[in-house]
Amino acid sequence: MNLVTKTCLSVVLPLLTLSSFAQADEAFKLSHSQRISCSRGLAAGKLNTATCKSYAYIFNVKTSEYFRCQVSLALTRDNKEVINVTTDGGCTKKPRIFETDSTYDFDATETEPPNTNSFFGTGGYSVWAADTTQQKARGCIIISSGLGSDISKCLDMTFQ
């Protein structure tokens, strides 16, 4: 498992640099809710495969645009040695949460597949953003429709 952790870190750290996305006047922040989920297939006397996935969100605190980033690692071994390690990952740009520029804070969480709470696909995620210059917050839920496109709905919070 130590090899999996080291290899995963060697893939995640370069992804999180994102200097190609940043301009001098924009600030990107990493969400505080990174998760990792792993599965493995075991068969006596045969090859064993462990697959781990992790995701994070990179948020533009000025524009409220964000990127969903994912990294995966698959490790195949027999009883004596590691035979193959493959990695994959990248970041996908998502739309703005608020229409205007300001100073925002952000967090996100995600269902990890397979999940019995998911009716249509591999699950979904929620994002929360708050304007730090005024009492304004928005919560969004994004789920897989199972028909190719995600369904996304956001709601402005009321304060009572």
Walkthrough of the structure:
By secondary structure, the chain is mainly β. The protein has one domain (about 1-155). The chain is about 10% helix and about 50% strand. It has one helix at about 1-15; strands spanning about 30, 35-40, 50-60, 65-75, 80-95, 105-110, 125-130, 135-145, 150-155. The strands form two sheets. Strands 1, 2, 3, 4 and 5 form a five-stranded antiparallel beta sheet that branches. The chain has a four-stranded antiparallel beta sheet with strand order 6-7-8-9, with no helix packed on it. Strand 3 and strand 4 form a beta hairpin. The longest helix is centred in the N-terminal third of the chain and has 14 residues, at about 1-15. The chain is elongated, with a radius of gyration of 18 Å. The model is unreliable at about 5-25 (pLDDT under 50).
The tally of helices reads 1
Secondary-structure class: mainly beta
Low-confidence stretches: 7-24
How many structural domains in the coordinates?
A: 1
Layout of secondary structure:
Blueprint: H1 2-15, E1 28-30, E2 35-41, E3 48-60, E4 66-77, E5 82-94, E6 104-110, E7 124-131, E8 136-144, E9 150-156
Antiparallel strand pairs: 1-3, 2-3, 3-4, 4-5, 6-7, 7-8, 8-9
Task: Describe the structure concisely.
The chain has 160 residues and is mainly beta. The protein has 1 helix and 9 strands. The strands form 2 sheets. Strands 1, 2, 3, 4 and 5 form a 5-stranded antiparallel sheet that branches. The protein has a 4-stranded antiparallel sheet with strand order 6-7-8-9, with no helix packed on it.
